[in-house]
Write a structure and sequence with these properties.
The chain contains three helices and 18 strands. It has helices spanning 42-46, 51-61, 74-82; strands spanning 2-7, 25-30, 36-40, 66-69, 86-89, 111-113, 116-122, 131-137, 149-156, 159-163, 166-170, 175-178, 184-188, 194-201, 220-221, 227-228, 235-236, 239-240. Strand 10 (159-163) and strand 11 form a beta hairpin.
Length: 241
């Protein structure tokens, strides 16, 4: 069987790159013979969209039977499943494991996100300090994150952010601190979209339930714009208690 590992460099001891679709390289190991090859992922890095799906197709053509990586998007996951490629993910155990890391925006692809586009320069727990994403949106929906704090730094555009029911103007240079659990919503002015950096902590995969954006419609409001899940309704002998 051939195993593909997303890696950050060609060195034999290079760490795993947790970005499946945007990984720099893939080390392909034949577990039967021990033979190893390193495949460049320039097409995935430079893809405008669908990077993960393209990589899944590339690995299928190479005869890969399993992949070891970090974050895998839903479309890429479906493509891997369709190709019969098993997926083994490295869990986000890097919280507290801090290390030096250098990344460049112009070497990171752009992916769609629930409210616009995201350039995830540092993500999935890399570096062990914070996720660093550059986001471009015109209109965001009201949402919150269960256990994920965010700091926004506005790069371009003007608009407003609604935090816990209070509206605040945004312009380049604005800094917004949003604790976990606090509802927030963005809206750009008609002149153009808002572009800003999000520093997210603790560092983790964007698919982690603690970080995934959630809408508060089915939750109960608390003070300070926070929300909690309602208590479950129990039934006994046909009666609600």
């Amino acid at each position: 069987m051939k195993l593909a590992i997303s890696v950050q460099a060609a060195d034999a001891d290079a760490p795993v790159d947790r970005r499946f679709g945007r990984a720099r390289l893939f080390r392909i190991v034949d577990t039967g013979t021990g033979e190893q090859t390193v495949t460049d992922n320039a097409d995935g890095i430079n893809a405008a969209q669908g990077a993960g799906t393209q990589v899944a197709q590339m690995l299928a053509r190479a005869g890969v039977g399993a992949v070891l990586t970090g974050h895998v998007g839903p479309k890429a996951w479906s493509a891997l499943e369709a190709a019969g490629i098993a997926v083994y993910r490295i869990e986000d155990d890097t919280e507290g494991t801090k290390r030096v890391l250098v990344r460049y925006r112009d070497m990171t692809g752009v992916d769609p996100c629930p409210y616009g586009q995201a350039c995830r320069i540092v993500t999935g727990g890399e570096g062990g300090i914070a996720n660093v994403h550059v986001i471009t949106v015109t209109q965001g929906g009201l949402h919150f994150h269960r256990q994920y704090d965010e700091i926004y730094y506005v790069l371009a555009g003007t608009g407003v952010v609604m935090i816990a029911g209070t509206e605040h103007p945004l312009r380049p240079g604005a800094v917004v601190v949003i604790p976990a659990g606090v509802s927030h919503e963005l809206c750009a002015d008609a002149a153009g979209p808002l572009e800003f950096v999000i520093f997210g902590t603790p560092p983790m995969s964007i698919d982690d339930p603690r970080a995934r954006p959630e809408r508060p419609e089915h939750l109960l409001p608390l003070d300070g714009g926070r929300y909690r899940k309602p208590e479950p309704v129990l039934e006994r002998r046909g009666e609600i208690i």
